[in-house]
Amino acid sequence: MSRTRCQDSAQKADSAIYKALLESTKAIPWKLDWHSMEFVYIGPQIEQILGWSPESWVTIDDWANRMHPDDRHWVVDFCVSQSREGADHEADYRALTKSGEYRWIRDVVHVMRDEDGNVEALVGFMFDIHERKRTELELVRLQKELEALSYKDGLTGVANRRMFDETLAEEWAGARRHRQPLSLILLDIDFFKQYNDHFGHVQGDESLRQVAQALAGAATRPRDFVARYGGEEFVLVLPETDARAAHLIAERCRNQIFKLQIAHPLSAVSQVLTVSLGLGTRIPGHGDEPTAFLRQVDECLYNAKQQGRNRLVSLA
């Protein structure tokens, strides 16, 4: 046998070995001619994972069209631009299966150049990362859910003190930046200790839930914010709200709670559950702090209780 024939036989054997190795892996090997944008090769594993036969992958359009519409634009733009630059890259996207579902795929791409440095082909592997991606997305969802719960009062369902502190700081900074009024309402359920002592904590908790929902129903604009401040105290943050509008919202809160008609036989001011409210409005200036404003509104609430409860006192 001639030396040339021996070399040809060795090359064919090597090629067969490489092909066998490629087709035995769970990843999907592929090669794309850069000039024609046609697939030179794609592994048979593609049919096992996505359902499409290797023969159906003819051009780059088949790859792009079998991609989730939400992923297609950025993935195609990213991969094409990276390939033109000659940069190896990878991308995660949802690929359409023949049955009409989507599976998460990771495409790892290597750019091949000719002797002059020009791009001549792309080779790579597609990896099925569907289960891993689904787990990652579920973890992200749970993390967001836990984060949301950390900002919610477990009893009443409205925001908690932590969320209030962050919201007040954020809205205060925005009001100062845009020179807009910010209003704050603090309210306290009148004689709530006596209510709890008489009806018990179970019914007391239920009344807190009812009050919280009444307040949420009274503050209906998109940025109106309601939180449980602590115990039987609640707070409302009202961005871009002047004193007159805030006064109307405060009275609406008081009326909504009165309409609940929650019996309170031990109240010294009414036969039903009532609240006392403190209200303040400010256009924050340079150097003004929200904590000082909060203390002033808290003093208004204190004055409302000192003046007989079941009333609203506003900052002068």
Automatic annotation (TrEMBL):
<dbReference type="InterPro" id="IPR013655">
    <property type="entry name" value="PAS_fold_3"/>
</dbReference>
<keyword id="KW-0548">Nucleotidyltransferase</keyword>
<dbReference type="InterPro" id="IPR035965">
    <property type="entry name" value="PAS-like_dom_sf"/>
</dbReference>
<dbReference type="InterPro" id="IPR000160">
    <property type="entry name" value="GGDEF_dom"/>
</dbReference>
<dbReference type="GO" id="GO:0052621">
    <property type="term" value="F:diguanylate cyclase activity"/>
</dbReference>
<dbReference type="InterPro" id="IPR001610">
    <property type="entry name" value="PAC"/>
</dbReference>
<dbReference type="InterPro" id="IPR000700">
    <property type="entry name" value="PAS-assoc_C"/>
</dbReference>
<feature type="domain" description="PAC">
    <location>
        <begin position="89"/>
        <end position="141"/>
    </location>
</feature>
<feature type="domain" description="PAS">
    <location>
        <begin position="14"/>
        <end position="87"/>
    </location>
</feature>
<dbReference type="InterPro" id="IPR000014">
    <property type="entry name" value="PAS"/>
</dbReference>
<dbReference type="InterPro" id="IPR029787">
    <property type="entry name" value="Nucleotide_cyclase"/>
</dbReference>
<feature type="domain" description="GGDEF">
    <location>
        <begin position="180"/>
        <end position="316"/>
    </location>
</feature>
<dbReference type="Pfam" id="PF00990">
    <property type="entry name" value="GGDEF"/>
</dbReference>
<dbReference type="InterPro" id="IPR050469">
    <property type="entry name" value="Diguanylate_Cyclase"/>
</dbReference>
<dbReference type="Pfam" id="PF08447">
    <property type="entry name" value="PAS_3"/>
</dbReference>
<dbReference type="InterPro" id="IPR043128">
    <property type="entry name" value="Rev_trsase/Diguanyl_cyclase"/>
</dbReference>
<protein>
    <recommendedName>
        <fullName>diguanylate cyclase</fullName>
        <ecNumber>2.7.7.65</ecNumber>
    </recommendedName>
</protein>
<keyword id="KW-0808">Transferase</keyword>
